[in-house]
Amino acid sequence: MPSALPSSRTRWWSLAILGLTQLMVVLDGTIVAIALPAAQADLGMADGQRQWVVTAYAVSFSALLLLGGRIADFWGRKRAFMVGMVGFGVASAWGGLAQSGGELIAARGLQGVFAALLAPSALAMVSVLFPSGRDRNVAFAVFGIIAGTGAAFGFLLGGALTQYADWRWCLLVNLVFVVAGLIGGKVLLVESKAEGDTRYDIVGTVIVALSLGALIYGFARAEHGWDEPETWGFLAVGAGLMGVFVWWQSRTSHPLLPLRVVRDRVRGGAFLLQAMVGVVMVGAMLYLTFHFQIVLGMSPLMAGFGNVAMTVVIMATAPISTTLFTTFGPRVVLTVGPLLAAAGLFFLSGITAEGSYWSEVLPGLVVMGLGFSLIFVPVQNLALSGVDAHDAGVASAMANASMHVGGSIAVAVFTALYSSAMADALAQGTERLPALAGAYGDVLFAAAWAMILGAATSFVLFRGSKPEVPESVDAVATAR
Questions:
Q1: pLDDT tier at 473 (50, 70, 90 boundaries)?
Q2: Is the pTM value of this prediction over 0.85?
């Protein structure tokens, strides 16, 4: 850590730069999603290839986040941030100029590699710059709101760029963020790094990357049928390798993910809840966007606006949600939040080809916004509560990885679910648009059950009430 914290003014300007980075990383998970129909047509991609434009980013990001967090801790968080910015810009330019589906997928994968360096270094620097007290709560509230609204902002920005410019600008726009981040980072950010043991766990990195790759590919293969031996073979290999990874982390002297980071009940609960959030924000919202454009016939821009209702609700109710959190504690708030989100998803699962946005979509998005508002503000702070400075980067990486692993698996599973439902409906003589609406509804119904699981996780693991809230979040209401 730096020997002394920067001035208050410098710290808040630094937060602005780090928040901008967080926005870029989060919205890049969704900004391309709304451009997929246009990109698919332009590059001649099949439906099965289309999902990998989203999945390639999420897989490489989540597979390398833990290593990225350790690099940030050991090599230097500012240095990792700057290198990540440059690499992310290069990958974005490549994707924006791609001439084939394979090239676009490769560029998205490279984006994920450098995002895995950027995201944990940014969040770790926030943790270091704001070590405790009211300022820390405000800083994490900012990051929580960005995480909660960035995905929807990605849909809106992607819609505007696709409609009025070209789908390629959904990638090229990152260069604006990159230039701002490099200039601001050079001028404002201060270096910090962990002391002591700084050896990298390369073996652990390879194991966890192979494990996640096998799991996600296995779920993606389920599109061809759950009875395929290849599907279950990859799933079994992925699960087995994950077990090997946990065993290795308990044996090696320099683990990629020190088990002390995830063994804490509150912190572990926060990681699991973030995975469930990723199922919805990365997986389910992708198919709701398809419904807007393909079934309801919305333009890309109007499809982007279609998601804004949830964002507005999250931002409007965030101060109230923070007050409720400090009053009632994590168990109540982080159980009620997922239940509200699930209620909104259950409502959305009833979408039809003949229905309207106003009657079949908007009410569900409003309820979802209320639910996610209760989740986003506290969950990142809880995920980093009580973490030693030596582990700030890897804990930040785990917080990000949880959401993106959940989202990566969800995209693969939901694609299989959608394909199966669509095939069954068409075989029964259902017309194409009603069949699509029904298949998308099945995806949203499954996502609702993921949020029910998130509520159960919170209820079981956050067993205390207000006394269990970490001291660092206890004063957040007064900062509002």
A1: very low
A2: no
